[in-house]
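Obj: model holo form, ligand = zinc ion.
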Amino acid sequence: MRVPDAGLVRSVIRGGVRRRIRGYRRRGGILMYHRVIDAAFDPWGICVSPRMFDEQMQVLAEHRSTVDAVSFSADGDAYSRSGERLAVTFDDGYLDNVVAALPILERHEIPATIFVIGNAVGRTREFWWDALERAVLAPTVLPVELEITLGDERHRYTLADGSAEQATDGSAEQVTDGRWRADVDAAVTDRQRLFATLWAAIVVLDPDEQDRAADDLLTWSGQRVSVPRIMVDDNEFAELAAHPLITVGSHTLDHLSLTDLSPRRQRDQIHGGHRRIEELAGRRITCFSFPFGRYDDSAVAAARELGVDIACTSVPEPATVTDDRHTLPRLQALDLDGDAFARWLRDDHRLLRA
Ligand SMILES: [Zn+2]
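Output (holo structure tokens):
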């Protein structure tokens, strides 16, 4: 048996005490969504099917508990002992937010905040993370060898465990397992390891290098490089910005990993994205969220300089009244039916009054 060291025991106790103290503070929940779509694979758990999203919004509507995310600002009224107030947010600016989510939000009269990447609006190609999923997780068969230039470096990978060829004999389940989660499950097959390795290597590149890597991977895997547009265009953005239920927020210019950038580049990304969204919306924008939930002191300082009411992270906790309004935690809503969604809010987070 492994004997835990005293430092670990102390930190576990501290973590438990901290959670208990947080649990007694006035609180509420900020829900984080990305896409409302039926997805064949979803390694980050960011896709909720339209049917499940409808059931989840039905739960919120029955409790009459939804508020705007900015109600979690300094003088906001979203915090309560019972934790019954919840806000719905979306990140990135996917077209399905307009096509699939908006009619459901309208039917249940639920407000939502959509944090849009500045350079996503009108973008006709995928972002690299969507291309990477399609290139590495979708095909039934992949070439065994991959040689690719990432940034200035040439990389070589081999799919040696058979996860490349296995698919041809019908034993494809492990290879193309749509339930595999990159953030929860261990990478077991070479294909899953390749996905995780490439993701970590591409996230730190510049935008044009990311796009080049995406094209090279799609070509290598035999997938089409160009696909129908999946981000909002100017008109759809304008529809969101004018909609009485929707608040638009900013989400940087290019969705880079802020913690891998210098403070100066962080500021360029955060302020540049905010200006772009304000120009498109034609008015002041009052909320922001950190891409990939990644932030550090200088990124938070740059977000604070925007003068926004709230900035959201992806720390998976309820928001409590003493939290810093520029690093508000958010709970990632998964593809659950209404009952499981309600249980998750109540049992795991003591939100949503019984
Ligand atoms: Zn994002």
